[in-house]
């Protein structure tokens, strides 16, 4: 049986080893399931305590995707079978996924993420947790949750609110598909290499004199990636987001009614903006309200606070939000004709929004209280 995630160690001339995590469900674009999340968490915790492991690499099999998100089908089926209830499947998956993401953000050793190909949803959560986030000319990064009745979770409440201007809100509402230059501009990538530079990079890693000092290895890995970057033969491209930051900020200015009107009345010949407009306006109106609530969170909120906030919202979306209908339309029946709870943002009731934004747990009972 093929393992969904593979763990290996790469020996180096220094005597230190590098831990390598390979997501290995190519046919599912390396989407994360609960078993993968649990296995990764366990292995990373072991490597964090192992003095012989200098740092960790997370990559994926195949050429199409690093990680296209989470495998949400099990949550969908459990939620359909138990309407208006918070299921164990939803609670456990999101709890474990957020604990894994938090572990990566807080990891004592360097974590290099090879963000080649499709990086979406849960894949962005893994990428954002890395200290060394490598993008390539094939990277395509997006948070498309508005189309399945969710919102940009996996720490999005933290990193989206630290992007320039209104960019986080724009990415959440529109699921805009970023290239490497866009990823750099918003802070999701910090190194750029070509797709074909992966093998030479691993060869070079084996020759570095790694130590048992995490700060030293952090600096060594940065230096190595910078050297490799100097010889890249492909172009990172241009960032449309950087070029149009001012227009995006104007488009996202105001309250939810203002932004909905501005997007609805927008006339543009820019194909990327037209796609973004269409995705936003066809997305879940309930998701719009969550995304606006998310964008209004203080950027002083800690990462742990953000994950605790997200867990309550995510399980609520599955029990009494638009998640089940969104997944049905996109992944189960694939008719792409979701019948959202509310057909328009103007029809969404304050009671429905409050219900989604109210955590089902007290602070003492919260599954992530010890984060």
From TrEMBL:
Gene3D superfamilies: 2-enoyl-CoA Hydratase, Chain A, domain 1
Protein's UniProt keywords contain Membrane: no
EC number(s) on file: 3.1.2.4
Pfam families: ECH_2
Annotated PANTHER family: 3-HYDROXYISOBUTYRYL-COA HYDROLASE, MITOCHONDRIAL (PTHR43176:SF3), 3-HYDROXYISOBUTYRYL-COA HYDROLASE-RELATED (PTHR43176)
Extent of the signal sequence: none
Protein name per its UniProtKB record: 3-hydroxyisobutyryl-CoA hydrolase
EC category name: hydrolase
Catalytic reactions of this protein: 3-hydroxy-2-methylpropanoyl-CoA + H2O = 3-hydroxy-2-methylpropanoate + CoA + H(+)
NCBIfam families in the record: PRK05617.1 (NF004127)
KW Calcium (keyword) present: no
Keywords: Hydrolase
Species in which this protein is naturally found: Shewanella intestini
Segments forming domain Enoyl-CoA hydratase/isomerase: 18-356
InterPro entries: ClpP/crotonase-like_dom_sf, ECH_dom, HIBYL-CoA-H
């Amino acid at each position: 049986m093929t393992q969904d995630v593979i763990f290996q160690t790469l020996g180096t001339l220094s005597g230190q080893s590098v831990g390598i995590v390979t997501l290995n469900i190519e046919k599912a674009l390396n989407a994360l399931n609960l078993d993968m999340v649990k296995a990764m968490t366990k292995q990373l915790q072991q490597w964090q305590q192992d003095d012989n492991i200098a740092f960790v690499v997370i990559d994926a099999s195949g050429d199409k995707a690093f990680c296209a998100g989470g495998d949400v089908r099990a949550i969908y089926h459990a939620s359909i079978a138990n309407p208006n209830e918070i299921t164990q499947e939803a609670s456990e998956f999101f709890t474990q996924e957020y604990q894994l993401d938090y572990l990566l953000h807080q990891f004592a050793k360097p974590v290099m993420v090879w963000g080649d190909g499709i990086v979406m949803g849960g894949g962005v959560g893994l990428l954002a947790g890395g200290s060394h986030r490598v993008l390539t000319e094939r990277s395509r990064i997006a948070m498309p949750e508005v189309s399945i009745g969710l919102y940009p979770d996996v720490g999005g409440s933290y990193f989206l609110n630290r992007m320039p201007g209104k960019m986080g809100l724009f990415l959440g509402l529109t699921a805009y598909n970023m290239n490497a230059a866009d990823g750099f501009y918003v802070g999701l990538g910090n190194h750029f290499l070509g797709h074909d530079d992966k093998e030479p990079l691993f060869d070079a890693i084996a020759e570095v004199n790694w130590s048992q000092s995490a700060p030293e290895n952090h600096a060594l890995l940065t230096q190595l990636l910078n050297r490799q970057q100097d010889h890249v033969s492909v172009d990172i491209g241009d960032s449309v987001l950087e070029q149009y930051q001012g227009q995006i900020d104007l488009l996202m200015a105001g309250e939810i009614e203002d932004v909905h009107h501005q997007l609805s009345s927008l006339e543009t010949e820019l194909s990327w903006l037209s796609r973004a407009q269409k995705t936003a306006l066809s997305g879940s109106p309930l998701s719009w309200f969550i995304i606006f609530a998310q964008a209004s969170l203080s950027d002083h909120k800690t990462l742990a606070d953000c994950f605790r906030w997200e867990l309550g919202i995510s399980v609520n979306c599955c029990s009494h939000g638009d998640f089940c209908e969104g997944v049905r339309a996109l992944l189960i029946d694939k008719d792409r004709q979701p019948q959202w709870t509310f057909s328009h943002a103007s029809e969404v009731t304050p009671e429905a929004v409050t219900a989604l934004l109210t955590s089902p747990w007290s602070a003492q009972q919260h599954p992530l209280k010890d984060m």
